[in-house]
Fold:
Amino acid sequence: MVLLGALVNGVAIIIGTMLGKLLERIPESMKNTVMNGIGLAIVVLGVQMGLKSGNFLIVILSLVIGAVAGEWINIEDRFTRAGNWLERRVGAGGQGSISLGFVTASLVFVVGAMAILGALDSGIKGDHQILYTKAIMDGFISIILTSTLGVGVLFSAVPVVLYEGIIALLATQITRFVPEALLNDCIAEMTAAGGIMIMAIGLNLLGITKIKVANLLPGILVAVLLVVLVHGFQLN
Structure:
């Protein structure tokens, strides 16, 4: 089943959120320390991913063009409004903001190499091991995020399953049209651009910055388009 890995990932986030609800009463100082630890780890992960690039100019252009497109579409505001709508529908659950939990968790779980690589493996090879591993990681992260940001983390399972599921479905046909070398380069630059966004998420969690990370998301698609253009010029 092509979508099995994505579905398992979504279920892990839901289970993690439920477990996180049980930890709401832990001391505030402990929550802050744990959140700082997660923020630092996410920053380091982002740096590692950012260094995967084979052509950093592509990453820079991707972020610049992606930021312009994201600000024009105002993705961050749309995410926030979706979270606020959920908050009005189901309530904040007594702790944390559904909007903040939804937006933060969605970005943490969606923007990353494992989501892309795992979904590609699911579609191309029928191998879900990467997404199973990601599911375990996301489950533990969702426990901590829920204990600090609230039940909004639960709803991040929806964009995660949709994102990974769509990539997996497309990947079942991608090898027919995309050469392996081009696919590898696309993944490398998408990973690098995504890594910088992951680092921004970590800095936001640490309270150092207030970067609108969601408005940078189009940069991932721009990275793919730029890699395709570069390959086209090289062939000519």
